[in-house]
Amino acid sequence: MKSKAKQNTFDLVCLQSASGAMLVPYRFERTRQVKRMNLHVDSSSVVVLKAPLRQSQASGVRFMEEHGDWICRMLETRKSIPKLHSYLMKHPHLSLAGRSVPLVLRFKAGVCQHVIEDTAGRVILTVDPGKVLVPQLVSLLKSIAREFLPTRLMELARKHQLKPHGITVRNQKSRWGSCSETGAISLNWRLVLLSPPLQDHVLLHELAHLKHFDHSKGFHQFLKALDPSSEKHARRLDADASLLIDLGQAEL
Fold this sequence. Notes:
Blueprint: H1 4-7, E1 11-17, E2 20-30, E3 38-41, E4 47-51, H2 57-66, H3 68-78, H4 84-90, E5 93-96, E6 99-107, E7 113-117, E8 122-127, H5 133-159, E9 167-170, E10 177-179, E11 185-188, H6 196-208, H7 217-226, H8 230-239
Parallel strand pairs: 2-4, 6-8, 9-11
Antiparallel strand pairs: 1-2, 3-4, 5-6, 7-8, 10-11
Helix pairs in contact: 5-6
């Protein structure tokens, strides 16, 4: 677990893009978990550069300079991240048990609850308009995720004869999920906001780590056996769903 002090510190780099120069905050992290450098922008609009242990920070800066256009585009996109309640009103559905379920948002004084209607096949979220909205929505969605995500993961695990050792649903800042060396899988509650195919892709990705605790060629081959469209799903997750990971974070 990273300390808050480490997470809140960053350096600055000047990157060139098609729209001009931009001073960009970044955090350089060496880790055994990656075999090559990769980038993402966190919820605070800080670029996080993860690199293998052997890589120097100078080589990391050169890597960011080579990808300056992409980084600047991502930072501009972050400015338009929707509010959680606005997103739910524009995309009124959740992915539960492998299917898309209609979502209804209601307001009632003194009430914060969710109801899953089996007959109507929909989920109703009722929140108190007199209280801060986002914490209520996050609490309700986390409860739903804790009810459905472990069950769906176990369905897929049984189908492929895999056995995780413990499942938790959490509020990760930048990951859709993770798998420990002991086989414990942790899932982000925001997975219920993804489409069913993308949600299953993430679940299968974590299950694949039960056989390959890395991102080696063997891992990707095994993942493709579990999810034949894994490459397409991974691209869609990066392109279409990357902003969902930040929903509700800055608003809490």
